[in-house]
Amino acid sequence: MDFCTLGMLIIDDIRHAPPKPSSQNIIGGAGTFAVLGARLFRPYPNSKHIGWTVHRGHDFPENLSEELDSWQTGLQWIETPERQTTRALNEYIEGKGDDFRAFRYITEKLRIDETHLTDEMLQSKTIHMVCSPERCTNLVFGIQARRVKLGVLGLPVFVWEPVPDSCTTDAIQAVKDAARYVDVVSPNVSELAALFVAEATPEEEMEHMEQRCAALLDGPFGEKDGKLVIRCGSKGCYLRSNAERLMMPAYWSNSESTGTIVDPTGAGNAFLGGLCIGLLADGPKWLTTLEKGAVYGTVAASFAVEQVGVPRLSKGESGQEFWNEDQVNMRLNYYLGRIYDSH
Fold first, then answer.
1. Whether the predicted pLDDT of 328 surpasses 90
2. If pLDDT is split at 50, 70 and 90, which confidence band does 256 have?
3. Which residues fall within 8 angstroms of residue 296, CB to CB, at 6 or more apart?
4. DSSP 8-state secondary structure symbol assigned to residue 311
5. For residues 192 and 162, is the Cβ–Cβ distance under 8 A?
6. Per-residue pLDDT tens for 221-249?
7. Could you give the angle at which helices 267-280 and 289-304 cross, rounded to 10 degrees?
8. What whole-number distance in Å separates Cα of residue 79 and Cα of residue 126?
9. Segment 56-80 mean pLDDT
10. CA pair distance 38, 272, nearest whole angstrom
């Protein structure tokens, strides 16, 4: 497999400040959107190389099951008829803008760990995790142990997305300790700031982003050539390693975004799914590996924001795939053209 996530599927209720309408029973969850981001670049039959696990409770809507099955991924359903599906509320607070989202579970969550992965998933080239520092370390060690039992040589590329609750000033050392075991760490810019200060304005978050990245790289994570990808919402993303310091723009420019960006829920997760596939990409040669990851991630996020929930998959007469009636490679080539001059 090319990609596997240990993130969950969650059925979301999404509440916006009036007059923007709210929505219920929406396909969501970090795992789902990460899968979407990877799936965009793996048309069928290569879509089967995208692995994930979903616990399906007794209340799981049949139409949502059908939609997820239509993606034709390496999806493993685990039936849990004795309980509800994991559900959550995403609430965008009035006056905070669409880059600020309050999140809380409204049913008991049922997490994914290495024991839920099939042998094929354990051999994936990239593995995405969204979790606390302690859980990150445990998952990495658990996956490594199971791979050894399977006789799998080498390690996957681990991409870690720290959960917001673990991004506090008290957790900075725990984050640095966990980072040494992964290849890419990707908080958003607000989560990065929260590791260093109790409160920060959006302007302050961007202004001090570089020095905070430097602090995270000062230690074992930087010594092993770890890579930071800071997701900055509508401003794009910042790539930072020992060798790289680069801000890359979002796909939708300010002039193009009006009427296009409907709901940013899940865009950051989709970005990381796309990033994982981009890290495996052959070209173009004028991009570094991390830049290729960011390009794919940026294009993936562009599809995630165009609607409430996930984009619509359809097929042309010759079997070519369309997402929201657009082709992924068209967007990929368009974005590459935009950034070419900066390289």
1. yes
2. low
3. 37, 41, 274, 275, 277, 278, 281, 332
4. P
5. no
6. 999 999 999 999 999 999 999 999 999 99
7. 140
8. 26
9. 96
10. 8
Arithmetic mean of pLDDT, 175-201: 96
Instruction: Please give the order of strands across the beta sheet that includes 102-105.
Output: 23-28, 10-15, 87-91, 102-105
Task: State whether the Cα torsion 95-28-190-297 is positive or negative.
Answer: negative
Structure tokens at 171: 């957790």
In terms of DSSP H, where are the helices of the chain? 30-39, 62-69, 119-122, 133-150, 172-179, 189-194, 202-207, 209-217, 220-223, 254-257, 267-280, 289-304, 328-340
> For the chain, how many structural domains are there in total?
1
Tell me how crowded residue 156 is: count the other CB atoms within 10 A of its CB: 22
* Residue 163: how many other CB atoms lie within 10 Å: 17
Query: Apex CA 290: angle with CA 53 and CA 278, to 5°?
Result: 45
pTM of the model: 0.93
User: Do the strands 321-323 and 245-248 form a parallel or antiparallel pair, or are they unpaired?
Assistant: unpaired
CA distances from 194 to 44, 134, 167, 191 (A): 40, 18, 6, 5
Phi (first) and psi of residue 102, to 5 degrees:
-90, 135
Q: Token match 């000062």: residue?
A: 218
Asked if 98 contacts 34 with a C-beta cutoff of 8 angstroms, the reply is: no
Q: Contact at 8 Å (CB) between 312 and 295?
A: no
pLDDT band at 283 (very low <50, low <70, confident <90, very high): confident
99 with 233: CB under 8 angstroms? yes
Token code pair at residue 300: 């993936």
Q: In the structure, what pLDDT confidence band is assigned to residue 314 with cuts at 50, 70 and 90?
A: very high
pLDDT higher than 90, residue 90: no
The CA radius of gyration of the chain, in Å to the nearest whole number, is: 19
CATH of the domain at 223: 3.40.1190.20
Q: Which two tokens stand for residue 202?
A: 């959006």
What's the CA gap between 196 and 311, in Å, rounded? 36
Tokens of 135: 């859980």
Residues 6+ apart with CB under 8 A from 117: 4, 6, 51, 53, 143, 146
Which range of residues forms the domain containing residue 220? 3-340
